Amino acid sequence: MPARELAVKGAYVFTPRVFPDDRGLFVATYQRPLFAAATGHPFPVFQASQSHSRRGVVRGVHFTSTPPGTAKHVYCARGRALDFVVDLRVGSPTFGRWDSVLLDQEHFRSTYLPVGVGHAFVALDDDTAMVYLMSGPFVTENEHAISPLDPALGLPVTLDGIEPVLSERDIVAPTLEQALDLGLLPDYETSLALEAAL
């Protein structure tokens, strides 16, 4: 399973080997030894979640208070999505930078988002199913969002002829600059320490 670090420090894309045959296919979307070899630590799965979205739906940019912090391993089980990792860690050498990966049901690439890094995606097909492995529990009061439409970020989330479909939470989310002013963003050194403790 080849791995490549993304433009956001500590974030990776994994490309597993897919085994198709006349019945369908088989793929291992997470392999602990290969993950640990790439990132330097194993990924402790605490919770697995799934979302389904129609074409044009944008989810994110979501992140968790740090502490406690949560790392994520994300792949697309059905459909296609343009997946974004956004560095929200104040003090990070890649703060404010983002990278994107096409996730689909053909290649089964996955992204790894370390503690403190924000996640977003835009669904490119109807009934796009995204699977999230998380290092900690989802606790509502610890979950935050940055506007995916923040012009300073410049995420390409608008599809031709389709207005982005956002939740109320994401519509009212602050910009990156506003979140920084409000003191909502994770600290880089704290994020690294929490990541090392996974």
What attributes does this structure have?
mainly beta; Jelly Rolls; 6-stranded antiparallel sheet
Topology, element by element:
Elements: E1 3-5, E2 12-14, E3 18-21, E4 24-27, H1 32-39, E5 47-53, E6 58-64, E7 72-78, E8 80-87, E9 98-104, E10 110-113, E11 117-123, E12 128-134, E13 143-145, H2 168-171, H3 176-182, H4 188-196
Antiparallel strand pairs: 1-2, 2-10, 3-4, 5-12, 6-11, 6-13, 7-10, 7-12, 8-9, 8-11
Quick structural summary:
GO terms for molecular function: dTDP-4-dehydrorhamnose 3,5-epimerase activity. One of its GO terms (cellular component) is cytosol. With 198 residues, the chain is mainly β.
Describe it.
It is a single chain. With 198 residues, the protein is mainly β. It has a single domain, classed as Jelly Rolls (Sandwich), CATH 2.60.120.10. It is 14% helix and 36% strand. The protein is built from four helices and 13 strands. It has helices at residues 32-39, 168-171, 176-182, 188-196, and strands at 3-5, 12-14, 18-21, 24-27, 47-53, 58-64, 72-78, 80-87, 98-104, 110-113, 117-123, 128-134, 143-145. A hairpin with a 6-residue loop joins β1 and β2 (12-14). Pfam families: dTDP_sugar_isom. Belongs to the dTDP-4-dehydrorhamnose 3,5-epimerase family. This is dTDP-4-keto-6-deoxy-D-glucose epimerase.
* CATH architecture identity: Sandwich
Number of distinct helices: 4
Number of domains: 1
CATH topology description: Jelly Rolls
What topology, given as strand order, has the largest sheet? Answer: 1-2-10-7-12-5
The radius of gyration computed from the alpha-carbon positions, rounded to a whole number of angstroms, is 16 Å
Mean pLDDT: 96
Percent of residues in helices: 10-25%
N/C terminus separation: 21 Å
Secondary structure class reads mainly beta
General shape: globular
Largest sheet: 6 strands, antiparallel
The CATH homologous superfamily is named: Jelly Rolls
| SSE topology string | EEEEHEEEEEEEEEHHH
As residue ranges, the low-confidence spans are none
Portion of residues in beta strands equals 35-45%
